[in-house]
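chain below, 301 aa
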Amino acid sequence: MTQRLDFVSVLLLLILAAVWGGSFFFAEIALREVPPLTIALHRVGWAALILGLVVRARGIAVPRAARVWGAYLVMGGLNNAIPFSLIFWGQTRIESGLASILNGTTAIFGAVVAGLLLADEPLTRNRIAGAAIGLTGVAIIMGPDALSTLDPRNLGQLAVLGAALSYALAGVWARKHLAGQPPLMNALGMLCGSTVLLVPVVLVMDGVPSIDLRPATWAALLSLAALSTAFAYQLYFAILPRAGAANLMLVTLMIPPFAIALGVLFLDERIGVTGWIGFAVIAVGLAVTDGRVLQRKKAAP
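prediction:
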């Protein structure tokens, strides 16, 4: 049975959407001085330190099995290192608001990937139809020339879609390999795994990260880590038992308005009409994938 959303759950969802939507804004500021891969390392590295203190303060047991830490390493790659790097690189080519809209396909990709790879989450007609509608929204955003002309803007959009697919694969990996671990420990473990993965990549590609950065850049980096990652994960796991996984998926639709508003107010960004139409179509696709709206219509007298 689907859990209902009460006032507190809606409020928490809005806060989570704001801090996750803010990640696109913070990244846009940091990108003025720091390369994408280094931003991803800052985000996971500082967040791992913060969550490590939280896990210690709460007395959560740290697993010792190599199998679990191997699973954290893969999870860190799929849920942090790869998607964060792709999104931040994509934001060097497209606006932060548009990146957040394309990132909204995560829930649709997640439903389809789970349907293909998990026996207890079959690929239903709703999921297939929702995916088709969602991809139509993406096609509207990217335009008719996207497949014939691979300009930097199109590559940026494809990078964000690749990040959404990586998030979807991470969800399946977590279901299969991390279901028995405490949620906050899973968050800390994958952040540690992604930090381990990103350190050598950053050293080779970007060199040793500079600490001689402007105050605004440091503020953006620390906000990415503390607010949009460490605090967001704690909020996520507080909402999950209260509102349920299905309702939590709704945050995907709440993120773009926050990201777009911040971009418009502080970065002088603008989202065109096709961007808003695409977002609306993606939202319809998510609603069809979720299936609850259709169920209510059938149940109505």
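The longest helix spans residues 215-243. The mean pLDDT is 89.
thats it, cya
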